[in-house]
Specification:
The protein is of the alpha/beta class. It is built from seven helices and eleven strands. The protein has a single domain, classed as P-loop containing nucleotide triphosphate hydrolases (Rossmann fold, 3-Layer(aba) Sandwich), CATH 3.40.50.300.
């Protein structure tokens, strides 16, 4: 089942007396449970595309449907509801609330959804167990390492068990060991919870974990590869 449908998407931004075209006639579909990445250098359009999928921006031309809703037709309130109920976001800068505990940071999306206290408690503890941080629930972000902060960000994104998680350069501030631990965690959650992950990245560490690689160049899809895991845990391209 396709949960994201993109057809003939073009995105322009005003620039001086003209416009800059960030995306040009992009057509893509994403199925439920994919572990996919938008790959390309700065300026290739990958973050713009991720933002439109996440209803943080809208198409100039063409159409984008996410979970059956047309992104271009949503007003601000409707877009916020779509994000709140169905999406998790992971950013390279973590975006944690520094004065709040790990528990409170992870709990925040559930407060917006108005879950009861007992339900929130169970969901937060489940999320912290997924990322191996049950012993850090009372700590605050300044007391954590970069890798731990990113794991909190993953727990916050996953706590409501969203249909999809959008991750923009999630390992940019991490060393190789922490990056691999983070990616293994996300891979595990994708496999066990069937959550769709879409990354925007140019980091080889992330690219090596992807099951689908969509290469963008100058705002266009240059190549779209699906990867099939082998019995050894490596990946090979499938045409």
């Amino acid at each position: 089942m396709h949960i994201i449908r993109i057809k003939n998407l073009t995105k322009r931004f005003p620039m001086g007396k003209g416009a800059f075209t960030a995306l040009r006639n992009v057509s893509l579909n994403f199925a439920e449970g994919e572990f996919a990445g938008l790959i390309g250098p700065s300026g290739s359009g990958k973050t713009t595309l991720l933002n439109i999928i996440g209803s943080l921006d809208a198409p100039s031309d063409g159409s984008v449907e996410v979970l059956g809703q047309s992104i271009g037709a949503l007003n601000a309130k409707e877009a916020a509801r779509l994000r709140k109920e169905n999406m998790g976001f992971i950013f390279q800068s973590y975006n944690l609330l520094q004065v709040h505990t790990v528990y409170e940071n992870v709990e925040f999306p559930l407060l917006l959804l108005k879950f009861g206290a007992d339900k929130r408690r169970k969901m937060v503890l489940d999320a912290l167990e997924w990322v191996g941080l049950t012993d850090k629930e009372k700590s605050k972000p300044p007391q954590l390492s970069g890798g731990e902060c990113q794991r909190v960000a993953i727990a916050r994104a996953m706590v409501k068990r969203p249909a999809m998680v959008l991750a923009d350069e999630p390992t940019a501030n991490l060393d190789a060991a922490n990056s691999h631990n983070i990616l293994k965690t996300m891979e595990k959650l994708n496999r066990e919870l069937k959550t769709t992950f879409v990354f925007a990245t140019h980091d080889d560490k992330v690219i090596n974990y992807l099951q689908r690689k969509i290469f963008l160049l100058d705002g266009r899809v240059d190549k779209d590869e699906t990867i099939r895991p082998t019995t050894t845990g490596d990946h090979v391209a499938r045409n």
